[in-house]
Amino acid sequence: MSKVQKIKGVADLYPEESAKYAFMEATARKIFGGYGFGELRTPILEKTELFCRSIGEETDVVQKEMYTFPDRKGRSLTMRPEATAGVVRSYVENKIYQPGKVSKYFTIGPMFRYERPQAGRMRQFHQINAEAFGSPEPQADAEILLMLSAFLSEIGLEKLSIELNSLGCPECRPVYKKALDDFFNTIDKEQLCDDCRRRVDTNPLRVLDCKVGKCKELTADAPSIPDHLCQDCRDHFDAVLEVLQKAGLSYTLNPRLVRGLDYYQRTTFEVTSGDIGSQTAVAGGGRYDGLIHSLGGAKVPGIGFACGMERLAMLLDGNYDRKMDFYVAVVDERSSNDALLFAEKLRREGQCGEVGFAAKSMKAQLRYANKLEVGKCYIFGSEEFENRTVTVKDMAEGGEQTTIPLDI
Ligand code: HAM
To answer: What is the pTM (predicted TM-score) of this model?
Structure first.
């Protein structure tokens, strides 16, 4: 019989790997909870229209990467490529907004993008996502960056770089776009990559952060976004930077950081690592003050980020699985029941451990116990069976072996 294989770009996460995900999730819950964020679980399936209207019709995500299909009644549905759109949809639909109220949510789960799979780039991947609604102040931008940095430090990743930019607002963006358009008229657009030739008309800012060498070269002298910010956006960005400096959070300004989703305004950021190959961004986010209104809600500002769990997992090493305290070796199979009951008693007292039922030799069982790195191995051999005792082997280097009465 032929075997059914998984589809391209998805993964089965076995315990060693999934333990890293559980660790990241538990840490996010702890850290984000400390900043007043509560968990919101939104559906994986949404109406396609939601993503077209929020992420932007001309983005790569909407143009080429969505898993979109008609349901049985012919309605177009899409498996979420990111979480922000669904969180905003829910916030608007459930009329959470009240003047002066701040709402903060985090979301953890799988996202789907039809991209070319490679290390750190999957078609089903997982994000830890946080969104704060209702705070226009620059301190909110700084706070969300500090929360992201606190989370990354807590999972043991201190040495990541934070890149920051401001993308301006509907006031100053058109002025900048005009300057960019004038610049594009001075270069030979035919030499740009296929994607950028299209983007020049449909999504010109994206040309700036194209990774193709020729595009970088041709746009080296393009006008810079931060040079075209209006006074309000300039003041906002300066205030964000000032708080970050006071808080001791280091960052690099990247005037070409544009992000791949259209909803951003003002502060945007990415966290990158040089240690995971070509897909360097482990987290990204920013402010999206117009999004809630554009999806039918009140004029409420928003800011958030998402971390890519696959990419963070690549940076985590070590064992995140629950550590076992003991191993019970059954050498005489007449003791199997006693061994099981003995182990169960220890587990009910809060210890973790496994029982090896008689199939393997004593030596093989001790080898396995060593691999589990348990503190103690309890041996149920023939002598122990006759005397109703258990041999306790301390697994530390030079550890002692003692015999105790079997008390179950
Ligand atoms: P994004 O930059 O598209 O932003 O994705 C955030 C992170 O998800 C990336 O930095 C990366 O680590 C991870 N990621 C994206 N695509 C893949 C993939 N195909 N395979 C593995 N990891 C991937 C957003 O999604 C925004 N919704 C973030 C946000 C929240 N902005 C405001 N609020």
So the answer is: 0.94
